[in-house]
Amino acid sequence: MRTYPECIPCILQASLNAGRLAGADEEQLWQALTAAAAEAARWPRERPPIALGAAVAARVREKLGTGDPFHRAKREGNAKLLQLYPALRARVRSAPDPLDAALHLAAAANALDLGVYGEIDFVSMLERAWASPRGRWDLPRFREHLAKARTVLYLADNAGEIVADRILIEELLAQGKAVTLAVRGGPILNDVTLEDLADVGLPKEVEVITTGSDLPGVFLPLCAPEFRARFARAELVVSKGMGNFEGLAREPGPIFFVFQAKCGPVAWEAGVGLRELVLLGPGAAGLPKDARHGS
Question: Strands 237-240 and 255-260, how do they pair?
């Protein structure tokens, strides 16, 4: 996915959110945001917005001198969703179709994104997202691919949201699949890293790896060679979140994207409406270019 003009203010807003979470004062924020804006001004639009997000985040960290400004927010997000975990798991398991319900929950939980929203009431936002309409929902194709796959590569996205991912992963394990979870190689926004998994309670059967990259999404040219090799031989990829969609939308292979379309450019690319939930299978290119801005 290329970078749209709409991506630039979104990325700058995420940078401002990071600075405020880090406790930066106005002068520090001014220095960080002007450096971020300069980075965006020279960005080649053909590259994906997640790569711009990583470049801007590096400039912001350089100016603020901070490590991971989202560290505390990520821990709080995980804790709040873990409180809901028993009820959410029961809701999925009592559904007429637990796999479909687990996919729906995972897509709805993608709304819990501190990179997009400065503050989140995790409980009420998840309930609102659960009630969001489905846009593209390729469940029959997902079942077909899942039936043939012995292994699943699961690409994680945000903290908090990872607890809903745990429920979907547990459903995949119950169907006899071996699951490998891939997280970010370094801190970026509120995306999940190895450190953030410590208190999530993932089943011990799940193998955990990193992408080897601190981009807020998987963009294969900038991932570690070891991850690229794992990706290339994956039998089924579950790709969570908009950032992963931005980086992988044009990649071939058995990839299913699961997310909520929280911004216009991603909704246009996926061919769905804003805020709709998405389960998008391989080979789907979304709306033709001249139709995207009509939604």
Answer: parallel
Closest CA to 282 of 231, 248, 247: 248
How far apart are alpha carbons 210 and 117 in whole angstroms?
25
**Look-up of token digits 């969570």:** 240
d(CA 68, CA 98): 36
Q: How far, in Å, CA of 219 to CA of 210, rounded? A: 13
Structure tokens at 13: 């807003």
SS3 158: strand
Q: How far apart are CA 217 and CA 198, in angstroms?
A: 21
Rounded to whole angstroms, how far apart are CA atoms 45 and 148? 38
Distance CA 291, CA 94 (A): 40
Q: Are the C-beta atoms of 156 and 162 separated by less than 8 Å? A: yes
Spatial strand order of the sheet with 151-155 comes to: 134-137, 277-280, 255-260, 237-240, 151-155, 178-183, 207-210
Q: Report residue 253: phi and psi, to 5°.
A: 120, 175
**255 close to 56: Cβ distance less than 8 angstroms:** no
* Tokens at 221, concatenated: 């040219």
- The CA distances from residue 74 to 61, 120, 158, 198, 261, in Å, are 17, 11, 8, 12, 21
SS3 259: strand
Token readout for 125 is 């936002």
| pLDDT at residue 200 in the model | 95
Structure-block tokens of residue 220: 């294969």
Residues 15 and 33 sit within 8 Å (Cβ to Cβ): yes
259: left (phi over 0), alpha (psi -120 to 50) or beta: beta
Question: pLDDT, tens digit, for every residue of 260-282?
Answer: 999 999 999 999 999 999 999 98
Strands (E), the chain: 134-137, 151-155, 178-183, 207-210, 237-240, 255-260, 277-280
Res 117: pLDDT: 62
